[in-house]
């Protein structure tokens, strides 16, 4: 089978489930579009000779039975949901790529020694309901009914009602994932690194850890006309010092450290009052836990120092503290060999992922690796999300080679 035309046809077919005029997809968990997509995928997989099964919540698995080691499973896939007005590649690409790669292996080499499975995870984005990773968290028996029993979508539809309407329910049987010997997720990069390096493949060695803070500085609101500069306790001035200094420090530390002040709210936020308060966010990520911790200490020390210097008080709330997730080194190495063979030394790089993925859940339980292809202009979570078809094909070819080594070789 021709990988390029097979993938392209499937991509066009599946982009129609929730497809938007002008491109992109809105396919939210348990929506009509989502239901259509999962059932269409089931038919597609069955047509290609996979046996299929849904778990209780709607994760779909397609399986090609292994001839010699059927209880050793080599799995690949991603999530089938999208964000609101998302692109056609985030998640969908990983599922269709795995389908095409495995179907093409079967056509060329027949039945594998080990079983191969395509996994379409029900949900990752947290776009319809305020809960993310519903698919992978159920796949590993982590999600709890009580997490979602009271939540509703923006229209007021209860999670459970949406789920039951879609034909699924809460997990009643634990999934057995102990057979999975390797999990590979192929995904778009959603960043600009590969594009700027003019490379087609990223072999992911880990997913960054992140710390998120909400910081509030308390000073004194006062008259903008009658309060001399020397007598102010101006929180926005302190805030801008913090941003400038820490951003400079982050640049000095260099990649892959990233630091973002994405949200800021001065109080009272008006033109003629010295801002007596400011609340802002800090998002800091790094692939190495020690280096993340060291920079985090520098953040809190500097915020405190500026507050002391300017006569302010400060509250620092660290509300997210996620450890980096390392991919399985031996699997990363195998995939690197496939990349070397398929696209050559110059066309791939080993890199970390700055975004979260289902694979960070998988990595805790099964040997896990990820592959990236470039995103044009780094755009994702947007209807304009795109990747050159030639790069999408290269991604599938690297995946196919890796799957061959894992499932067809002794
Ligand atoms: Zn994704």
From TrEMBL:
Q: Which cofactor does it need?
A: Zn(2+)
User: Quick one: a GO biological-process term for this protein?
Assistant: allantoin assimilation pathway
Q: What molecular function does GO assign, one term?
A: manganese ion binding
Query: Which Gene3D superfamilies does the entry mention?
Result: 3.30.70.360, Zn peptidases (3.40.630.10)
Q: List positions binding Zn(2+) 1.
A: 79, 90, 187
Coiled-coil segments on the chain, per record: none
Alphabetized InterPro entries for the sequence: Allantoate_amidohydrolase, Amidase_Cbmase, Bact_exopeptidase_dim_dom, Peptidase_M20, Peptidase_M20_dimer
**Which residues does the annotation say bind Zn(2+) 2?**
90, 125, 381
**PANTHER family per the UniProt record, alphabetical:** ALLANTOATE AMIDOHYDROLASE, ALLANTOATE DEIMINASE-RELATED
Q: Which family does it belong to?
A: Belongs to the peptidase M20 family.
What is this protein's record name? Allantoate amidohydrolase
- Organism in which the protein naturally occurs: Staphylococcus simiae CCM 7213 = CCUG 51256
| Source taxonomy | Bacteria, Bacillati, Bacillota, Bacilli, Bacillales
């Amino acid at each position: 089978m021709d990988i390029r035309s097979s993938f392209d046809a499937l991509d066009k077919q599946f982009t129609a489930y929730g497809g938007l005029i002008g491109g992109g997809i809105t396919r939210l968990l348990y929506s009509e579009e989502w239901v259509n997509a999962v059932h269409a995928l089931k038919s597609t997989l069955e047509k290609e000779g996979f046996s299929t099964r849904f778990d209780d919540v709607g994760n779909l698995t397609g399986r090609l039975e292994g001839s010699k080691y059927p209880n050793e499973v080599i799995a690949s896939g991603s999530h089938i949901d999208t964000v609101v007005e998302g692109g056609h590649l985030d998640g969908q690409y990983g599922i269709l790529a795995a389908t095409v790669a495995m179907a093409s292996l079967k056509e060329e080499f027949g039945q594998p020694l080990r079983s191969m499975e395509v996994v379409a995870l029900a949900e990752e984005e947290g776009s319809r309901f305020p809960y993310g990773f519903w698919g992978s968290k159920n796949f590993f028996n982590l999600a709890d009914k009580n997490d979602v029993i009271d939540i509703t979508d923006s229209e007021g539809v209860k999670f459970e009602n949406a789920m039951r309407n879609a034909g699924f329910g809460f997990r009643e049987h634990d999934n057995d994932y102990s057979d999975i010997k390797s999990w590979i997720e192929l995904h778009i990069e959603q960043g600009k690194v590969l594009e700027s390096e003019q490379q087609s493949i990223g072999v992911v060695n880990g997913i960054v850890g992140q710390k998120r803070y909400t910081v509030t500085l308390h000073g004194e609101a006062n008259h903008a006309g009658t309060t001399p500069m020397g007598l102010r306790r101006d929180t926005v001035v302190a805030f801008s010092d913090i941003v400038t200094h820490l951003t400079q420090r982050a640049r000095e530390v260099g990649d892959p450290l990233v630091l973002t002040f994405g949200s800021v709210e001065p109080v009272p936020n008006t033109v003629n009052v010295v801002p007596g308060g400011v609340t802002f966010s800090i998002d800091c990520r790094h692939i190495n836990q020690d280096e993340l911790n060291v920079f985090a200490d520098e953040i809190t020390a500097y915020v405190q120092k500026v507050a002391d210097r300017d006569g302010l008080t400060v509250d620092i709330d660290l509300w997210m503290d996620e450890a980096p997730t390392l991919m399985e080194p031996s699997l990363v190495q195998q995939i690197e060999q496939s990349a070397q063979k398929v696209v050559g030394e110059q066309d791939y790089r080993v890199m970390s992922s700055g975004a979260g993925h289902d694979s960070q859940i998988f990595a805790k339980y099964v040997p896990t690796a990820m592959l990236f292809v470039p995103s044009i202009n780094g755009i994702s979570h947007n209807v304009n999300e795109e990747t050159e078809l030639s790069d999408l094909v290269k991604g599938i070819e690297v995946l196919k080679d890796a799957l061959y080594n894992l499932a067809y070789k002794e």
